[in-house]
Amino acid sequence: MIGVKYNDWFGDKRIDDRGTQLHGRLFRSATRSIQAMANNRAEQKAFYRFLHNGKTTEKKLIAELTHRCQKLSKDKVVLSIQDTSEINLSAHAGRIDKSSGVGDIDDNKGGIGFKIHPSFVVDAMTCFPIGFSDIHIWNREQGMADKYKREYNKLPIEEKESYKWIAGSDGSKEVLSKAKAVIIVQDREGDIFEQFVQVPDNKTFLLIRSCVNRGIGSDEKLWDALSKATVLGQYELHLSSDSQRKEPSRTATIEVRCVEVQLQCPRHDKKNRSKAVTAYAIEAKEINSGAKQPVHWRLVTTWPVNSYADALQIIEWYSWRWLIEEVFRMLKKEGFNIEASEIESGWAIRKLTVMMLDVIVKLMQMHIAYNCPEGESPETTMMFTSREQECLVAVNKKIEGKTKALKNPYRPRQLKWAVWIIARIGGWKGYTSQRPPGMTTLFKGLEKFYITYEGWSLQKDVGTR
User: Fold this and answer.
1) pTM of the entire structure?
2) CATH of the domain spanning 1-56, picked from 3.10.620, 1.10.3470, 1.10.246, 3.40.50
3) Neighbouring residues of 130: CB distance < 8 A, sequence distance ≥ 6
């Protein structure tokens, strides 16, 4: 695998080499268990030492990751997609050192863990994953008083946990300074007026789902203005079934409206009282639907929207939020299952989490590459060494069926060719009529491939002696 090399990053070649080796093993073994990914006791000790070493700080690991993102985003129009998740370590509360980077979490049952707020960067033209522009990890104090006792609402935004949205945007602006343009995408929690005032500039834009029916001048409200706006057009959207909401699959008709607005400062915000922000509000609303929860998005963006096509682009960009949700899913039970880690130090688990996020980027790249149009897929060398590609050729011959429908339809130099093989190993049947392979399938396929690769390499090395 063409992986990360921590060359002179931690100030000690041995530590750099251990980190490089651990990163590669995370990709190969698809496990959170240090014992499972190490080949022997010596490696196991080396990996533990790396995670507990004072030189391999969380800050340095994040800086190395964002540094690569900075280089890859140069001259591109990119999206920086933010969200928050919680790493719940309560099942191992008796083993975890409670003074090591962990604290209270949201379950209100004496649970323990930490929070993570990453900014995941993708190419705005192709949706191809680039990396992370910012990762904020923090833990609450243990035994912290509730919001009412702390008079949370009276605190300045800088002292609130919600400041993570602004901090993530500011961090991303700095890392993505060489990009052509940056669109920061956030869910309703990011609908904070201070952010609209502080973050946008001539090449940094916000795209946030509206949470508040804000004033827009002359006693008019944002949502009311949107509902009265002229319909720009309609489009159809196929929605898969939702077992949790008990909604069957359907083809939804979506009506689109857009209006330019002047966002007014909330009354409680004395600091920004004289300021108003020019923005565009877009509504994507499902009509004539019997669904229990029909689609209804109200989006606010500082990216100019001058046509129906522009509005559709904004809606599509927001729809790519599923990528950050997929990152969290792979970090947790569907993938690495970091919450089941056997490590006793919270700081070490936090470092391992950062390294896992980096590996998940590569899984996402494989997933998106498979869906790229023919001829636009990256080459196999992006993910696999020449020796690994040899093994893939051998595996491909074994798993291909006799009929044309079960032949690998892609050229060997395309990453799609390798992803097809990995997906087949992971349990995907390979028919073109079947849905493309998902992240979980690729995750399982990689683990099985590298088990095969170890045996293939051993046989090949023995045979050439």
Assistant:
1) 0.89
2) 1.10.246
3) 69, 72, 73, 76, 78, 121, 122, 123, 361
